[in-house]
Amino acid sequence: MTIEYLADRPEALPILARWQHAEWGHIRPGDKLERRIVRLEGQMGRDAIPLTVVAFDGEEVLGSASLIEHDMDTRPELSPWLASVFVGPEYRRRGIASQLVRRIMAEAARLEVPSLYLYTVHSEQLYAGLGWTFMERTVYGGHDVVIMTCAVAGIGDPGGGDAYSRPGSPIPATTPQQQ
């Protein structure tokens, strides 16, 4: 498995947009697939926020995660955010989501971001296991969510000595229990 920038592998954009729209389209009433595509096109950075990374097995798209300025319009004071962590249903329980989250954390550290935020409906345990801490419970988009935060300064090696911070680097295999 490799994790690469969406900017370097734009052919992944259509499948990512379809997956994300199917998973989260209900959170934005009236949202269309075309708008999701436009948002992803706007997240095709490498050296600045926003950026998206994509997990691949050869040419097969496995999942993605993004680093964006804002993910909750009700909490504009919190920035930046880990967002849109998604792994294709047939690839879950293999540790891919954890690898994507760690990669975004390393990207944030490389960009000298001191801390990140996220919100989740049902994956609090996954993120807690990766060093994220509970901040608050709230309602967003009609759903009960948990906001979490993580200090990322010093994570990874901005000089490229760590697999999570090097684009296209193979990621070590993990067992299902590690996700």
Features:
three-stranded antiparallel beta sheet, alpha+beta, 4 helices, Aminopeptidase, four-stranded antiparallel beta sheet, 179 residues, globular, single chain
Nearest-integer average pLDDT: 82
- The side-by-side strand order for the widest beta sheet comes to 1-2-3-4
CATH topology: Aminopeptidase
Q: Which CATH C-level class is it?
A: Alpha Beta
Tell me the name of the CATH homologous superfamily.
Gcn5-related N-acetyltransferase (GNAT)
Q: Strand content of the residues, in percent? A: 25-35%
- Based on CA atoms alone, the radius of gyration comes out at 15 Å
Coarse morphology:
globular
CATH second-level architecture: 3-Layer(aba) Sandwich
Short description:
By secondary structure, the protein is α+β, with helices and mostly antiparallel strands. It has one domain (2-166): Gcn5-related N-acetyltransferase (GNAT) (Aminopeptidase, 3-Layer(aba) Sandwich). 23% of the residues lie in helices and 28% in strands.
Walk me through this protein's architecture.
With 179 residues, the chain is of the alpha+beta class. It has a single domain (2-166), classed as 3-Layer(aba) Sandwich (Aminopeptidase). Helices cover 23% and strands 28% of the residues. The chain has four helices and seven strands, in the order βααβββαβαββ. It has helices at residues 13-24, 33-41, 96-110, 124-128; strands at 2-5, 51-57, 60-68, 81-87, 115-120, 133-140, 143-151. A four-stranded antiparallel beta sheet has the order 1-2-3-4, with helices on both faces. Strands 5-7-6 form a three-stranded antiparallel beta sheet. A hairpin with a 2-residue loop joins strand 6 (133-140) and strand 7. Helix 1 (13-24) packs across helix 2. The two termini are 15 Å apart. The model is unreliable at 157-179 (pLDDT under 50).
